[in-house]
Design brief:
Elements lengths: L6 E5 L4 H13 L5 E4 L10 H5 L3 H6 L1 E3 L2 H4 L5 E5 L9 E3 L1 H9 L5 E5 L8 H4 L4 E3 L12 H18 L16 H17 L9 H13 L5 H15 L6
Parallel strand pairs: 1-2, 1-6, 2-3, 4-6, 4-7, 5-7
Length: 243
């Protein structure tokens, strides 16, 4: 089961008013943990308070981060909200399916919301294990930030109302690796492959790196699995000595 409610991560939000509206939408459905990444107008932002309409606890406890990677470093499950799949081979969920998924997840969950005008960038979506897409009118797919947050928050609240009881397992499930460990694993892998001359020809290197990162973030790696693979990489990096 997920450890606590999901974290709402606002990536590069533009207007303080929209941050306040998102906080209001969160508290409407019992969510209180907000993280803000590189807001355009800085943080704290006095424009957020009035539109939060009393959701002061969310704004007061909101944490500020320079990068999306830092904001989700302690999270085992990262979901990106986007109407565009961007050619990535990640599982795509509706808000309802994502809420079901988070209800049975082990470890912290984070949901990424992009800036109002452009949405999440590819580099942010790459960090996610899964994508959440709202089945919206294809002729008019424009949602504001608070609307997007309230759609997801509502589906999450329905899980709480259902009073789901998780089955008791004889063996304690292994905790999924947090995002920071996956980032370190990927950096280690890329460094080892680069030294081995794997990224050839050079013009294909960016696409290959995106594919590799998607492969790493796609499954639910455990800490033990990540550490095992890093041990494998470290062993391969050492000069072979025949005994």
């Amino acid at each position: 089961m997920s450890s606590g409610n999901p974290i709402i991560v606002l990536v590069k939000p533009q207007l303080g008013e929209n941050i306040g509206k998102a906080a209001r939408a969160m508290l409407n459905f019992g969510l209180t943990e907000m993280r803000i990444v590189d807001p355009r107008d800085g943080w704290p932002n006095p424009a957020a308070g009035p539109t939060a309409a009393g959701a002061d606890i969310v704004l007061e406890q909101a944490e500020l981060f320079d990068t999306t990677a830092a904001a989700v470093a302690d999270c085992a499950h990262v979901y990106a909200t986007t109407v565009r799949k961007r050619g990535m081979t990640k599982q795509v969920l509706t808000p309802a399916a994502a809420a079901d998924d988070m209800a049975t997840a082990s470890g912290r969950c984070a949901i990424l919301f992009g800036p109002e005008r452009s949405g999440l960038e590819v580099v942010d979506v790459e960090l996610a294990r899964k994508i959440i897409t709202v089945p919206i009118n294809p002729e008019f797919g424009s949602l504001n930030l608070a609307q997007a947050v309230v759609l997801i928050a509502y589906e999450l609240s329905k899980q709480n109302d259902a009073g789901l009881v998780q089955p008791t397992l004889e063996a304690k499930p292994r905790e999924p690796a947090p995002q920071l460990e996956l980032d370190r694993f990927y950096e280690h892998l890329e460094r080892a492959l680069d030294e081995a001359g794997y990224f050839y020809p050079p013009d294909r290197a960016p696409a290959t790196k995106v594919t590799l990162r998607n492969m790493i973030t796609k499954p639910a790696w455990t800490n033990e699995e990540v550490q095992t693979w890093r041990g494998v990489l470290s062993s391969l990096e050492k000069p072979f000595v025949k005994k």
